[in-house]
């Protein structure tokens, strides 16, 4: 089981990601942060490229919910 949280500081606008799971090195695969755009946390057993697609959608103006929806609708088995 994997637990993830993404947070944004209201004062500074900085993002942070925390993840814990039973798999080692999850921190190298699952947190994704892009300056000026946002942060995404994929889960332990998933395609980490999905986070890049979500951040790309957010970079062109989609909000987080819209970005996730646009990525999910174009993928199977999500």
Record the SSE blueprint.
Elements: E1 3-8, E2 15-20, E3 31-34, E4 38-41, H1 49-59, H2 64-73
Antiparallel strand pairs: 1-2, 3-4
Helix pairs in contact: 1-2
Low-confidence stretches: none
Taking the sheet with the most strands, its summary is: 2 strands, antiparallel
Query: In order across it, which strands form the biggest sheet?
Result: 1-2
**What number of domains?**
1
Strands, count: 4
N- and C-termini, Cα separation: 17 Å
Work out the radius of gyration: 13 Å
Strand content: 25-35%
What class do helices, strands and sheet pairing give? alpha+beta
Shape: flat
List keywords for this structure.
single chain, 78 residues, alpha+beta, two-stranded antiparallel sheet, two-stranded antiparallel ribbon, 2 helices, 27% helix, flat
Question: What does this protein look like?
Answer:
With 78 residues, the protein is an alpha+beta fold. The chain has one domain. Helix content is 27%, strand content 26%. It is built from two helices and four strands, in the order ββββαα. Helix 1 packs across helix 2. The longest helix is centred in the last third of the chain and has 11 residues.
């Amino acid at each position: 089981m994997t637990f993830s949280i993404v947070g944004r500081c209201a004062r500074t606008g900085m993002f942070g990601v925390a993840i814990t799971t039973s798999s080692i090195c999850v921190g190298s695969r699952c947190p994704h942060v892009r300056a000026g755009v946002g942060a995404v946390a994929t889960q332990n057993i998933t395609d980490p490229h999905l986070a890049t697609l979500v951040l790309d959608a957010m970079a062109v103006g989609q909000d987080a919910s819209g970005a996730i929806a646009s990525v999910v609708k174009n993928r199977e088995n999500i």
